[in-house]
């Protein structure tokens, strides 16, 4: 019991304390409340894992509720993408809800507040309201419209709803305290006029509720017991509670807002506004570009739901914002793919190698293990012939003793095949090596059990048979930003840190059985890294995205900079 208690995060302790003091477990309900104004990112993944994880831990329902109160920025595309992401992560919501489901109830409550003298229509400009709101060190001053009569406020608010006024002509404000030390309590706006079609209610409404008015009341309507949000909403909690006070019925569950720290990921941004800018300015090829920190981008790059859930579990829940190194996320996907991804041969920077003593029209199919980490993965046949491709970097005419790959006069083993010896090489007019001539030991076939096959050589190379190889487009991704925290510089725009070399597209060659590879399939190109079949793949065009290398090469690069 003691160990279990230690493993609880502080939000779970809050729930446990509530249960100990009489809150009924069957009244627990959580929610994940995205605004459908963009695709979800890795920060949202932590929130999804938190709320749905709590639902699983306590056997409690979790609502998926879209806070769709701003038709100027929200689209059905984003609703669909969010649902797809949550499902892909492996979670099921109890009910699908929308803040727009509650527009009439929210309006009715707003009318009630007007009648009770707790809300009024303000006709100032936004500039005037900002000025009279004061500052953190100076008190605000009351609006000249603050003491309008109830009847006038009701008439104006009804006119706002009926579309009689232009945008910006009026707003509805809660009448709280213009001298409060919490500026959010200084008569916050509850409604504004927006003559925009809504993705669900179309043009039924031309006034839309603000987030602070909508969120807590929606929690209350849904009887959410614990409303968890990130730290930037800590100052909003007082207003959340004030609004609840106006409608709360003691016979119902009163939602409790608590805050946890945002997890920022290094070398990227986790702001929908900034991610949208990357899309709009063509820096990336859409919200699902594999360089993006969106869940859709990570999925397209080859990340698995398990790796993201493990990442969220590893970083945990904290009370302070902090920056998480992206290498921790990469460790999780590398660890998972190591267990599940079949090993295949793929050459990204080909150099032709001719085995001069192999029969000219010879061909054989060799056994290759699919995954040494998974005995049940079985094996496959790979073709071998006289002419093969190896990586250019795997050959040097001359090299020191620490170079364990192919060099003139020395031997290496070809993975799943034979031991070969480099005899000579051919160069072009500029001195570039274009072909290596080798000989092979016919008795050294891997797995044959001969004395020659058991002979130890220090280097092992991957390869593909030229006559059998499939051409593939290979997309190699790097960090999208050169700075680990690009959006925290007060004197610079985050766009200044864009890594111009974040994508390199090359032509590689892969073994022939990959012709049947399907979108999303994941493989390890041996000695190179993990790759995923991109949705751009067609029957005559194979496209692979590099998910992650076999090792954290970025850390090594940074050490040498």
Automatic annotation (TrEMBL):
Domain Glutamyl/glutaminyl-tRNA synthetase class Ib catalytic: 27-338
Transmembrane segments: none
Keywords: Aminoacyl-tRNA synthetase, ATP-binding, Cytoplasm, Ligase, Nucleotide-binding, Protein biosynthesis
A single Gene Ontology CC term: cytosol
GO biological process terms on file: glutaminyl-tRNA aminoacylation
Family annotation (NCBIfam families): glnS (TIGR00440), PRK14703.1 (NF011291)
Name the UniProt record assigns to this protein: Glutamine--tRNA ligase
Organism: Aggregatimonas sangjinii
Lineage: Bacteria, Pseudomonadati, Bacteroidota, Flavobacteriia, Flavobacteriales
């Amino acid at each position: 019991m003691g160990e279990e208690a230690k493993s609880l995060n502080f939000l779970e302790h809050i729930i446990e304390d509530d249960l100990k003091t009489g809150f009924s477990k069957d009244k627990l309900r959580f929610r994940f409340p995205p605004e459908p104004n963009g695709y979800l990112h890795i920060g949202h993944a932590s929130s999804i894992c938190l709320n749905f994880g709590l639902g699983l831990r306590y056997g409690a329902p979790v609502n998926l509720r879209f806070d769709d109160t701003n038709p100027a920025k929200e689209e059905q595309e984003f609703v669909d993408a969010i649902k797809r992401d949550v499902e892909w992560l492996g979670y099921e919501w109890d009910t699908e809800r929308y803040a727009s489901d509650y527009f009439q109830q929210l309006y009715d409550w707003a009318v009630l507040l007007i009648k009770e003298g707790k809300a009024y229509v303000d006709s100032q400009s936004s500039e005037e309201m900002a000025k009279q709101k004061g500052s953190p060190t100076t008190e605000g001053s009351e609006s000249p419209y603050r003491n309008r009569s109830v009847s006038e406020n009701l008439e104006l608010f009804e006119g706002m709803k009926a579309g009689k006024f232009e945008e910006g002509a009026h707003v509805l404000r809660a009448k709280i305290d213009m001298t409060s030390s919490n500026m959010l309590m200084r008569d916050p706006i509850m409604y504004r006029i927006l003559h925009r079609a809504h993705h669900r209610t179309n043009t039924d409404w031309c006034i839309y509720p603000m987030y602070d008015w909508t969120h807590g009341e929606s929690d209350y309507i849904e009887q959410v017991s614990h409303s968890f949000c990130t730290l930037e909403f800590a100052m909003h909690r007082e207003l959340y509670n004030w609004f609840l006070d106006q409608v709360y019925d003691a016979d119902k569950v009163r939602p409790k807002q608590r805050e946890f720290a945002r997890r920022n990921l290094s070398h990227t941004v986790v702001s929908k506004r900034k991610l949208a800018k990357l899309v709009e300015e063509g820096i990336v090829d859409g919200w699902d570009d594999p360089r993006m920190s969106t869940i859709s981008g990570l999925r397209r790059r080859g990340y698995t739901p398990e790796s993201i859930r493990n990442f969220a579990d590893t970083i945990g829940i904290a009370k302070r914002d902090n920056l998480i190194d992206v290498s921790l996320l990469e460790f999780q996907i590398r660890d998972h793919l190591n267990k599940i991804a079949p090993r295949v041969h793929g050459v990204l920077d080909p150099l032709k190698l001719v085995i001069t003593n192999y029969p000219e029209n010879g061909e054989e199919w060799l056994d290759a293990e699919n995954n040494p980490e998974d005995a049940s993965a079985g094996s496959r046949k790979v073709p071998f012939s006289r002419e093969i491709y190896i990586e250019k970097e795997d050959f040097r005419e001359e090299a020191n003793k620490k170079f364990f790959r192919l060099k003139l006069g020395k031997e290496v083993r070809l993975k799943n095949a034979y031991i070969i010896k480099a005899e000579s090489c051919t160069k072009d007019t500029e001195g570039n090596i274009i072909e290596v001539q080798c000989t092979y030991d016919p008795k050294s076939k891997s797995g044959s059990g001969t004395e020659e096959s058991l002979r130890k050589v220090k280097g092992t190379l991957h390869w593909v048979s030229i006559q059998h190889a499939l051409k593939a487009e290979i997309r190699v991704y790097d960090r999208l930003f050169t700075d680990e925290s690009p959006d925290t510089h007060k004197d610079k725009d985050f766009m200044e840190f864009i890594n111009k070399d974040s994508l390199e597209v090359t032509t590689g060659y892969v073994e022939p059985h990959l012709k049947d590879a399907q979108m999303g399939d994941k493989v390890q190109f041996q000695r190179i890294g993990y790759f995923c079949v991109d949705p751009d793949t067609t029957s005559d065009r194979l496209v692979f995205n590099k998910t992650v290398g076999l090792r954290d090469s970025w850390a090594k690069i940074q050490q040498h900079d």
